[in-house]
Each structure stands twice: as structure tokens, then as C-alpha cells.
Design goal:
The chain has one helix and 19 strands. The chain is an all-beta fold. It has a 19-stranded antiparallel β-sheet. The model has no long low-confidence stretch (mean pLDDT about 90).
């Protein structure tokens, strides 16, 4: 197969579209793995609205078909002059990942990876940030991630460690989303405990599960490695109707709870809104509006309406610069 279109649905009734893609392949090796793949993704079954394009170069392929070196480049769209049956010419450079897989399990899953990712601004010309990570993975019998050890470095030589994270995944849904995730973080020495958290995700229906969009996400933070002492809990709810074509949330309802002697108490309620064009290739919102309520004794009081703009982020998605306008109300 050198080209095809694929429409994925949750069931045979074809009422709920998960994704629609056009694919092109070339440069096949004797193992059947192509040296070049281009994938255009659409938000509709008529293949009219492009939500993104991925261009994949498999530069080193083993004798049994494992991809050792690959470059994955993501774009925002496709040339408007393209014919649906012709080449896919991407436009709007967003990011580029250079991936080296040095060890595989018997099923061909990469166990050891070194990934350098470069993120670009909306013009596709200026680099926003670059990340360097070394990852060691294990998998279950269904080829789903079981554990990951993620080391993030300051440079490509991987000499200056920023952080080390041990991540465990469990409670997978039928569509392969981890319902429970445990993250333990260590400092630059890779030994000193820096924090622990769990993430629990709930998917409201098969469509959102298939798209990987959790309608409720609960993040619980702990002060100890044994994860017995909760310090904070953040519950984020997203209505599936408030997602853009790329899955970015346009409206989020967030509640923040802190631990007290009498248990968890809600202290803050926020409504976070953004527009489709506000999102960078990294998934970070370059502008947002946050409405904040102080919660005490169950009663909410509006305490702020803030507009965030001109936001820049580092490789860990931390805001490095922004402009904020604060108001007493909307």
C-alpha cells in the first residue's frame, strides 16, 4: 500500500467519528516498513478540514523491521492546492522529534529511547524550546506502557540532569488510555525526592475514550514517597463539546482542594477559557482568560478576572514570560 484513506469510528453504526486520515508511504524495505510516511488528519469524514500533518522519516530500520532512527515532524496543515489523491505537502511547521531507539522488546516496542524535540512558534521559523530526554520503558502483553523512567537533560550530550521521573501506568481503558498514573519525581542528582503525584482520568463515553480526552482528571499531590500525606488535589472537568479539532480544551472547570486537619477543603474554583488559535504546537495556550472564585464554607466569591497573553514556555511547559491584565470582574 502506497496510499490510502482511513476513517475510524467507535462502532459499526459509524455515528461517532474518532479520526479521519490520509496516508502516503514510500521507500519500502524488505521488511515492509516504509522509509517515508506522511499522515494528514481531518476532523470530518469528508476529508475537508485538516487538523494536522505528520511527516515521518525512518532513517535506520533493522533487518526485522524495528525502526532504530526516525524523525517525526508535525505541521498545522496541508497545502490548499493539494489534490486528495496526490502528494501531501505539509505547511505550518510546529515541532520536530529526532528519536533513537536503541533496545526493543520481543514484540518490537522500544525499551530505550533518546528523544530530542524542537518546538517552533506560530511562524514555523523561530524555535520556542528544545527538550532532551532519555526514556526506559516496559510494556504489558497488550503493548501498553507499564512503566517509564524519564530523564530530562539540559543539553544533547545528556550530562546535566534536570529531573528524573518514575512513572507507572495502570487501569487502561478499552481504547488504551491509562486511567491511573503514578509519578515520582527526583531532583538533578536523580536521588533526592522532589515530589509524588497520582493522576486519575475518567472518560464519559466511547468517543472521548477513543480520542483520549478525559472529561474528569484528578491530580493528587503528596509530600512523601509513600504517598500517604496529601498536600493538594486538583480536579479538572472538561465538557467534550468544548474541545477544538486538535483536542485542546477551550473551557476548563477546575477546583483546588488543600489538606487541613479536618480533611480536604476546596479553596479555589477557576474557569479557564481559550480560543482555538491560542494554542501553540506544544499544546500550551499562548493566551487564556481565567475567572477565579474564592471558596470558603462552600460559598464562592469572585476575586479575579485575568487575561493572560504573549505567553512563552520552556521545554517543561513552564511559563517563562507573559502579559497579565487583572480586573475585578468580567
Amino acid at each position: 500500500v502506497t496510499g490510502q484513506t482511513v476513517a475510524n469510528y467507535t462502532d459499526s453504526t459509524k455515528t461517532s467519528l474518532v479520526s479521519a486520515q490520509e496516508l502516503r508511504y514510500s521507500g519500502f524495505t524488505t521488511t515492509g516498513v516504509p522509509a517515508h510516511e506522511t499522515i494528514a488528519t481531518y476532523s470530518d469524514s469528508s476529508f475537508k478540514t485538516v487538523t494536522g500533518v505528520q511527516d515521518i522519516l525512518n532513517t535506520t530500520i533493522s533487518a526485522i523491521g524495528n525502526v532504530i532512527d526516525m524523525t517525526l515532524t508535525k505541521y498545522s496543515g496541508r497545502n490548499s492546492g493539494d489534490l486528495q489523491t496526490g502528494d501531501i505537502n505539509p505547511v505550518g511547521l510546529q515541532s520536530q522529534e529526532m528519536i533513537h531507539n536503541s533496545l526493543f522488546d520481543p514484540l518490537g516496542n522500544p525499551k530505550v529511547q533518546d528523544i530530542t524535540t524542537v518546538y517552533y512558534d506560530s511562524t514555523g521559523k523561530s524555535v520556542i524550546s528544545t527538550t532532551y530526554v532519555h526514556i526506559e520503558n516496559t510494556y504489558d502483553i497488550y503493548n501498553r506502557l507499564a512503566t517509564s523512567v524519564v530523564k530530562t537533560f539540559k543539553e544533547a550530550s545528556q550530562t546535566s540532569l534536570i529531573s528524573l521521573q518514575n512513572i507507572t501506568y495502570s487501569l487502561y481503558t478499552v481504547h488504551g488510555n491509562a486511567g491511573h498514573e503514578v509519578v515520582v519525581t527526583y531532583g538533578p542528582d536523580g536521588v533526592t525526592f522532589a515530589g509524588a503525584s497520582t493522576v486519575d482520568r475518567v472518560f464519559v463515553n466511547a468517543l472521548e475514550d477513543a480520542k483520549g480526552v478525559a472529561t474528569t482528571t484528578t491530580q493528587t499531590k503528596y509530600s512523601d514517597l509513600a504517598m500517604k500525606n496529601i498536600t493538594q488535589k486538583i480536579v479538572t472537568n472538561i465538557d467534550p463539546k468544548n474541545l477544538d479539532p486538535n483536542g485542546n480544551p477551550l473551557v476548563q472547570d477546575q477546583q483546588i482542594f488543600v489538606q487541613t486537619s479536618s480533611g480536604l477543603v476546596e479553596t479555589i474554583h477557576q474557569i479557564i477559557t481559550a480560543k482555538t488559535l491560542d494554542f501553540l504546537s506544544t499544546g500550551d495556550a499562548k493566551s487564556q482568560v481565567i475567572t477565579t472564585y474564592h471558596v470558603e464554607g462552600g460559598a464562592e466569591t469572585l476575586v479575579g478576572y485575568s487575561e493572560y497573553s504573549n505567553r512563552l514556555f520552556d521545554s517543561s511547559h513552564n511559563v517563562t514570560s507573559q502579559t497579565i491584565l487583572n480586573y475585578t470582574d468580567s
